[in-house]
Design goal:
Helices cover 8% and strands 28% of the residues. By secondary structure, the protein is mainly beta. The strands form 2 sheets. The chain has a 3-stranded antiparallel beta sheet, with no helix packed on it. Strands 4-5-6 form a 3-stranded antiparallel beta sheet, with no helix packed on it. The longest helix has 9 residues. The protein starts with a strand and ends with a helix.
Length: 110
């Protein structure tokens, strides 16, 4: 899932303690919509906001296929969450390319 807190933006793909990355951007809340993308590919997690690459980190091996619930806009404890609206959520069964992220950012749903 993706969560936004006073500490930054988080992308969580499994356990909060071991399967997350974060960005130090702490205040994107400026009454504007933001396009946030989290990708996990071959054990590496990537985080983008508004078509800009923020960070990546490798060594993620948690099996995300299973019976765990999917939480969008918060972490699994529901302590860290997005204060605002979530719109146009998309989930893919593959990693997006940077070109695809660019297209989604520049040509949103109508």
């Amino acid at each position: 899932g993706i969560a936004y807190t006073a500490e930054g933006i988080y992308f969580i793909a499994g356990d909060w303690d071991t399967e997350r990355i974060s960005s130090s951007i702490v205040d994107p809340d400026n009454d504007e919509w933001h396009h946030i993308v989290g990708i996990r590919f071959s054990g590496t997690m990537y985080l983008y906001m508004d078509n800009i690459f923020l960070t990546s980190q490798g060594s993620h091996t948690y099996d995300i296929i299973g019976s765990s619930e999917l939480i969008i806009g918060a972490d699994d404890s529901l302590i860290r969450y997005i204060e605002g609206n979530v719109d146009e959520v998309r989930i893919y069964n593959r990693a997006l390319t940077e070109d695809e992220i660019n297209i989604l950012y520049n040509y949103p749903l109508i």
